[in-house]
Specification:
This protein is about 40% helix and about 20% strand. It is of the alpha/beta class. The radius of gyration is 21 Å and the shape is globular. The chain is built from 15 helices and 14 strands. The two termini are about 30 Å apart. The chain has helices spanning about 35-45, 50-75, 80-85, 120-125, 135-140, 150-155, 195-205, 215-220, 225-230, 235-240, 250-265, 270-290, 310-320, 340-350, 380-390; strands at about 5-10, 20-30, 85-90, 90-95, 110-115, 130, 165, 170-175, 185-190, 300-305, 325, 370-375, 405-410, 410-415. It has 2 domains: about 5-140 and about 360-415, 2-Layer Sandwich (Nucleotidyltransferase, domain 5), CATH 3.30.420; about 150-330, Nucleotidyltransferase, domain 5 (2-Layer Sandwich), CATH 3.30.420.
């Protein structure tokens, strides 16, 4: 949890059946304070807390997210009163259990907990706020995450090229996008991205080095193939899709245990990082080999902390030579903004009562309106603007899912 990603976007649409137009007006990241990180990570990593602590963290994160909005608007010279209609918040994930069958004991049920009290965000900013999208997805029988693939597909779909959008954040998430077929997209979590690597770096260097995002330590080390093979034989990696993961399966404790084992076997710190880096890289290659589009992939767009990790990228290139690997930024869609853009669209669809398109290869493809709304001081004005959005056109049967997204730059439609 490095910080809060924010975007300021403007949407227009002539008619419900026309392409939705989106203009990215600004984006940025507001770092979490040390206090917020410590309190939240203590709950995430130790999985032990009290109802009082949960309540306090929820309110604390609500204040943190509200202050981030206010700071972002000040830095970007955005007039919150006149230039913002709606705030859409993913919140901070404390817990996500999509596949309880992989845990022992197996009495657990599918659950999710994203926190940052939206009533506080709304009260501090005066703006209507939408949140709790993941629990909405779970309520309709899906896993609740990943939740950004549809917007990625809408932004990246190409008439002739099959594409993959690959996250290399804490978790390695991929969205496959067939050529000229946005409805054919599907998304899942491959496994740990940089989470185990960077946790191990801090652990092995006593906090002297924060990360190995560039792959410097990994490039100096020797891989323990036995550790790689054993780890990738664990139940998550052999599980079919849909699947998603988080700290319920891969946590700081996982990295600590692997480091202790490898250190006991005489591996150096660089060897440990090289091995964890190979786990991430090989899991991506294996994930594509098993679950990729039948047509294959022409282009892979990478983003996230590990998107410039030369060791990971070189391994992928060596094992997938036919795939052209590019930075997502090269398309004109900032890597640090694309997931926040997806959250913005979720909020927009919620206030319009419009279902979010459901990707392929999930438990149920029944479209649903997801999200919960906290009216702000602008609620009545917002309702009036929503009613006039399509020149007052009435939708007695409800609006269909967004099937086309046009990105506006300098007043013109831009294509990726």
């Amino acid at each position: 949890m490095n910080g809060i990603e924010l975007v300021h976007v403007h949407y227009t649409q002539d008619k419900p059946s026309d392409p939705l137009r989106m203009e990215l007006l600004g984006y940025g990241t507001i770092a979490h304070s040390a206090t917020v990180k410590e309190r939240v990570l203590n709950v995430i990593n130790h999985k032990v807390t009290t109802s009082e602590q949960i309540a306090q963290i929820n309110y604390m994160l609500g204040e943190t997210f509200a202050n981030a909005v206010l700071s972002f608007c000040q830095m970007r010279q955005v007039d919150l009163a006149t230039q913002v209609d709606l705030i859409s918040s993913h919140g901070q994930r404390l817990w996500h259990l999509p596949l309880p069958e992989l845990l022992e004991p197996q009495e657990s049920m599918r659950t999710n907990l994203d926190m940052a009290e939206m009533a506080i965000i709304s009260a501090r900013t005066g703006k209507t706020t939408v949140a709790n999208f993941c629990v909405g997805e779970q309520a309709y029988g899906r896993q609740g995450a990943p939740l950004f693939g549809v917007t990625k597909a809408l932004m990246l779909v190409h008439p002739t090229h099959a594409r993959a959008c690959q996250s290399l954040g804490d978790i390695a998430t991929v969205c496959f996008i067939p050529a000229d077929d946005v409805e054919g997209c599907y998304e899942f979590d491959i496994g740990p991205g940089m989470l185990l690597i960077n946790t191990a770096v801090g652990y092995l260097t006593d906090g002297q080095i924060a990360n190995d995002n560039g792959g410097v330590m990994a490039s100096r080390g020797t891989v323990s193939q036995d550790v790689v093979d054993e780890f990738l034989a664990s139940p998550y990696f052999v599980h079919g899709i849909p699947k998603t993961c988080g700290v319920e399966l891969f946590s700081n404790a996982t990295a600590y245990d692997l480091c202790e084992r490898m250190s006991d076997e005489g591996l150096s710190a660089d060897d440990c990082i090289a091995t964890l880096t190979r786990i991430t890289a090989k899991s991506i290659v294996d994930g594509y080999r098993i679950h990729s589009l039948r047509s294959g992939i022409d282009e892979m767009f990478v983003y996230g902390e590990g998107s410039h990790n030369a060791v990971i990228l070189d391994y992928i290139k060596a094992n997938m030579p036919a795939v052209e690997i590019k930075q997502l930024d090269e398309t004109g869609i900032p890597g640090g903004a694309n997931e926040a853009i997806a959250v913005a669209q979720l909020g927009l669809d919620c206030v319009f009562g419009r279902p979010y398109m459901v990707p392929q290869r999930v438990e149920t493809r029944a479209p649903a309106v997801i999200g919960q709304i906290q009216p702000g001081r602008n609620w009545r004005t917002l309702v009036q603007r929503v009613a006039k959005f399509w020149d007052g056109e009435r939708l007695d049967g409800g609006a269909d899912c967004v099937m086309q997204l046009e990105i506006i730059r300098n007043g013109l439609v831009w294509y990726s």
